[in-house]
Amino acid sequence: MTHMRPKLPLHAMNAGDGPHSYVQNSSYQRGVVDVAKPEIEEEIATKLDIKNLPNRFCIADFGCSTGHNSFPAIQIITEAINQKYKSPKITSESLEFSVFFNDVITNDFDTLFRSLPPDIHYHAAAVPGDFHCRLLPEYSLHFAYSSWSLQWLTAVPEAVADSGSPEWNKGEILYSRDRKEVCDAYLDQFEKDIESFLESRAVEMVSEGLMALLVPAVPDFWNPESEYTIPSDVNLLGSCLVDMAEKVTNIPTTISCVK
User: Fold this and answer.
1) pLDDT tens sequence for the chain (259 residues)
2) 123 within 8 A of 96, measured Cβ to Cβ
3) Coil, strand or helix: which one is 125?
4) CA separation for the pair 229, 113 (Å, rounded)
5) In what order do the strands lie in the sheet with 56-62?
6) What does the alpha-carbon distance between residue 109 and residue 15 come to, in Å, rounded to a whole number?
7) Which superfamily is assigned to 23-217 in CATH?
8) CB-based contacts of 71, cutoff 8 Å, min separation 6
9) Residue of 81, 43, 59, 27 lying closest to 205 (CA atoms)
10) Residue 184 and residue 188: Cα distance in Å, rounded?
11) H helical segments located in the chain
């Protein structure tokens, strides 16, 4: 019998639009969409080549959260597709877009649909569920998009929590490049997760469809001593958490007995 490590609970981003919501705390992620815009437009113009283009064009955003950063991305995609198929070299009837917004079942889809731009030119639908599994019918999807979502793992590598293992990540919430064993343990889990994602999309997508996947990563040439990037924030957060834990551990305890 094979024993599988339980998956992590699938947590959604903070709901609503208050001060602690994802809407108010995701400007960096929005910047990623803006930076990727020229790349997405170029790939659609040069690589999207669907034979027998249907009137209905289906797009899915896997990991949409409450839509704040998803709506601009969908606008970029739909405008680029319209531009491509309005080229003098290509003739087609007006495309009708269907957009599927996907996230975990606890996601705040209410905020997403309340926030839909009033001038959208597509039909919107929610598809709740884990995107590492099948979510859509076979050969129904023309364009798959995901931004800032695929880096979240479905499970913690068992070895990194085992104090007797070389992969034990003692006192750290981030693995560093000089801890190859820890890095490899997380990489193995990421490979399993991304394989599940791609296998599911392979069944759902039409032939010659296109995917745009924006995934944060640490460049090979990153120098943590002189360059600031995402791990810099995480290292700082980890240091703060360790300090807080030590202070809690060192608090003297007095027990009073009342007769």
Assistant:
1) 434 444 556 678 878 788 888 877 777 788 889 999 999 999 999 999 887 777 899 999 999 999 999 999 999 999 999 998 875 555 445 789 999 999 999 999 999 999 999 999 999 999 999 999 999 999 999 999 999 999 989 988 888 888 888 888 776 766 666 678 888 898 999 999 999 999 999 999 999 999 999 998 776 666 656 665 666 667 777 778 878 888 876 655 444 444 4
2) yes
3) strand
4) 33
5) 122-128, 96-103, 56-62, 141-147, 205-214
6) 9
7) Vaccinia Virus protein VP39 (3.40.50.150)
8) 115, 116, 117, 120
9) 59
10) 6
11) 27-47, 70-84, 109-114, 180-204, 230-249
Q: 161 is written with which tokens?
A: 């929590």
| 148 token code pair | 């800032």
Residues in the chain: 259
- The span from the CA of 150 to the CA of 243, in Å, is 30
- The first and second tokens of residue 60, run together, are 């899915």
Q: Which of 108, 235, 245, 193 lies closest to 201 in space, CA to CA? A: 193
